[in-house]
Amino acid sequence: STMEETDREAVATAVQRVAGMLQRPDQLDKVEQYRRREARKKASVEARLKVQRLSQLDGVRTGLSQLHNALNDVKDIQQSLVDVNKDWRQSINTIENLKDVKDAVVQHSQLAAAVENLKNIFSVPEIVRETHDLIERGELLQAHRKLMDLECSRDNLMYEQYRMDSKNTHDMNLIHTYFGDMQKLSEELAKQLWMVVQRSLVTVRRDPTLLVSVVRIIEREEKIDRRMLDRKKQTGFIPPGRPKKWKEKMFNILERTVSTRIEGTQADTRESDKMWLVRHLEIIRKYVLDDLLVAKTLLDQCFPPHYDIFNRLLNMYHQALATRMQELAAEDLEANEIVSLLTWVLNTYNSAEMMGNSELSPEVDVNSLDPLISQSVVDQLLSKYMSTLTSNIIGWLRKALETDKKDWIKETEPEADQDGYYQTTLPAIVFQMFEQNLQVAAQINEDLKTKVLLLCLQQMNSFLTRYKDEAQLYKEDHLKNRQYPQCYVQYMIAVINNCQTFKESIISLKRKYLNIEMEDTLSVSHANMDAILDIIAKEGCSSLLDEVFMDLEPHLNELMTKKWLMGSNAVGTICVTVEDYFNDFAKIKKPYKKTMTLEAHRRVVVEYIRAIMLKRISFKNAEERKEGAERMIKEAEQFRFLFKKLAAGSGEDTEGLCDIIEAIAEVIKLTDPSLLYLEVSTLVSKYPDIRDDHIAALLTVRGDASRDMKQTIIETLDKGPSQPNPNYVPIFKEITVPTLTVPKLLK
């Protein structure tokens, strides 16, 4: 059926092809041509099929012959297997009999190993002795070579024993005991190595080869450790005392050495030396820098690169320093010690004097070093510093003032500065103390400097209030007994001058230590201090003038009396006394001295006018009035001359004060009573603060005006326009007139 199907398909295909060839009428002419072409094609296909069939037949033939051969081979093998099987069954008994031979072979190999090791085993005590001697002589490399041989013998024996019978601890212990001295040798050698490592920074300068030998020994041991650990992974066996981990031990010893080196630099305690901490920190700085320079230039070459010895050491030093600084920070430090510590930790450590040293770079990068103490510890120290400093400053200021007060009662004059102005050492002492603390704070950082400045000025404020109180007490004590203290005037002058010095010092301190942006925060307290200083100076000046006028009192009391009229020298004495005092007052600094001269001038005139208003004299006639008035004018001239001399160079116009005395004298001198009213009204227009009682007193002194006349003049006085001098400072308002006339009482 398959053939039929194929035929049908062939026919269908042929029909299709013929249909395809004969589609147009003109193609019928070529039918013959087509038939010939197809016949050729068919013949060619048949030929190819024939060839194909022949080659397939050849293949089948070859395959059949190979199968035939294979069959024969299988039969041969089958026969051989039967033979082998027969032989094997026969030889089982023979194999059983060979077990003895096998045991003999194992024993032989063990004996061979034992014989090989015997040489070593018997010479163990001798080698141990030799090795010990080598260690004693410091020939460490040879000693280690022998030690390695001994360990190798022992380890091989133990390994053989372990392979043979790992459960047999008795034999293992036997070997271990026999080689017992060798363990001691290893420890002895290690001790020598660690001594060299401990002194490595010294050794590397004196005998670098010794250090190199030590490093080579450690490297050999590391290699053996690695080999033994590998064998343990494979066999489970590891000799006693392995791994030795000598490299790790070496680093531990270096670490301990570094710690001890840093701790050991503290030679003194606070009890034995105030500067113990500064000294301690300076020694640390020097040692660490020296050590690291040696480590970088020499030590680095004695170790293999993978030890990274310089960085490891740098790390150890940094850690040890951090530990030491934290210990120091935890101690009960004084203020100056806190500053020393913080300056060292925050500045010195990273500076060119230490870790920032150019010879240490680029290996040491100060920017990547961790801080030695944490910010919180720094803050704690700073706040402790500020509170200690606060109480110290309060104490120092109190002590400075106490010392200054002791000077005030001395019997010798105070010192003068280069310009001859009296002063005491108080401002210098106070500001020197402030300066020192500010310089110290500036070493740490800007922020602390500003805080300390604010603290100083704040304490200065309360100090000045105390200074003011003390000056007041000084004055009060003096008034109880004016003979004491002997140099009261000179010391009061020094107090006044100190106020000026304080002002200048505050300004210079701010200029030097205060950032511009902080200026505003201080302006209020600065103004406050200036105000207190002005009050102290002003009160001082006024107490000195009181002193002058207490001495002038008996002479002022003589003015406008009968005695005065008869020709007393009261005013001459007053002028001499004032001038004498002003010789001392020349030692007062400019701004205060100027005020003082003005005030003295004014007070003298006020006292003189007060003497007139006291109505101690009433002139009897025109002659007396003329004499009295001329005397007043002459005395006004004396005062004018005196104060001109005292105010020399200050350019002050004080003429006007003595003019008042002259104007009053004119009223007294007047000979024509009818012009009296006019003269008085001129006086009132010039000095509008004159009161009625002043005019009444003045007329009483004149002595020729009746009660009615006084009444009329006072009532008709024109209270109208006055033309006082624009510079006139009212003077009459502070002069009181006694209600009862003194002469009447005296009669």
From TrEMBL:
Broad class of where this protein is predominantly found: other
GO CC annotation, single: exocyst
Any one GO molecular-function label of the UniProt entry: SNARE binding
Endpoints of the signal sequence: none
Compartments reported by the entry: Cell projection, Growth cone; Cytoplasm, Perinuclear region; Golgi apparatus; Midbody
Keywords: Acetylation, Cell projection, Cytoplasm, Exocytosis, Golgi apparatus, Protein transport, Transport
GO biological process: exocyst localization; exocytosis; protein transport
Family annotation (InterPro entries): EXOC3/Sec6, EXOC3/Sec6_C
Gene3D superfamilies, alphabetized: 1.10.357.50, Exocyst complex component Sec6, C-terminal domain
Family stated for the protein in its record: Belongs to the SEC6 family.
PANTHER family, per the entry: EXOCYST COMPLEX COMPONENT 3 (PTHR21292:SF13), EXOCYST COMPLEX COMPONENT SEC6-RELATED (PTHR21292)
Its biological purpose: Component of the exocyst complex involved in the docking of exocytic vesicles with fusion sites on the plasma membrane.
Subunit record text: The exocyst complex is composed of EXOC1, EXOC2, EXOC3, EXOC4, EXOC5, EXOC6, EXOC7 and EXOC8. Interacts with EXOC3L1. Interacts with BIRC6/bruce. Interacts with MYRIP. Interacts with SLC6A9.
Protein name, as recorded: Exocyst complex component 3
